[in-house]
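Long-time lurker, finally posting.

We've been working with TetR/AcrR family transcriptional regulator (Micromonospora trifolii) and I want a structural starting point before designing mutants. I don't trust myself to interpret raw outputs, so I'm hoping someone here can both generate the structure tokens and explain anything notable. Sequence follows.
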Amino acid sequence: MSDTAASGGPDRPPIWSRPERGSRGPAPAHSRDAIVAAAITLADAEGLAAVSMRAVAAALGTGAGSLYRYLSSREDLLDLMTDRAVGELRPYPQVEDDWLETMVLLGRRQLALFGAHPWLLDVIHRPTGIGPQSLAWFDNCIRILEPVRCPVAAKFEAIAMMTGVVSLFARRESAAGAFSFAGVDLTAYPHLVAAFSQPPGPAPRADLVERTLRSLLTGLLLAGSTEAG
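Top reply, 14 upvotes:
Generated this for you. Predicted structure of TetR/AcrR family transcriptional regulator:
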């Protein structure tokens, strides 16, 4: 088998279209779902780097070789983990007759998901990780945006941008307090010196995420609607 095939490359069908396990070998001791659940538990506790076939197998009380009856590679496992986590966005919220507020709620739901699974930020953009749950998410977003009169390309762009912005907020929250100018000599940076010499002003409003998402979505979609008209 080629290295590309072994890693689930373009000459190999996606993991979701393959059988749960190979047709050969002893009866399965575990399910694919159990393997993915164990991997997610490990990633939540120790980070994505801790997720290896050996570590997941150890968590299940078996040998790493046994997992290859269900998966071809760690890449397959990451794809399954991603899609399983995206499935936690269900049930999708809905504000009747208000596509903007519904999309903002979906963005909030995404932010909570990244908070529950910080490792997801590092795999969510993998093209191979678009499985059934991810497709259902996109399908739901397109359904919500049906009333908006703009090109469908603008809608997909808005959905992608929303996820990107939410990802940035999630990274900011996970890194809160990790960055500071304290103890740094700013003498050579006059604009920073001037900025820090001013009163700090009020703290950022708690609804910054929602305000940002509303501005982003209306800017992209309503501008697209005007262009379409």
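Before you design anything, note these points.
The two ends are 53 Å apart (CA to CA).
The chain has ten helices and no strands.
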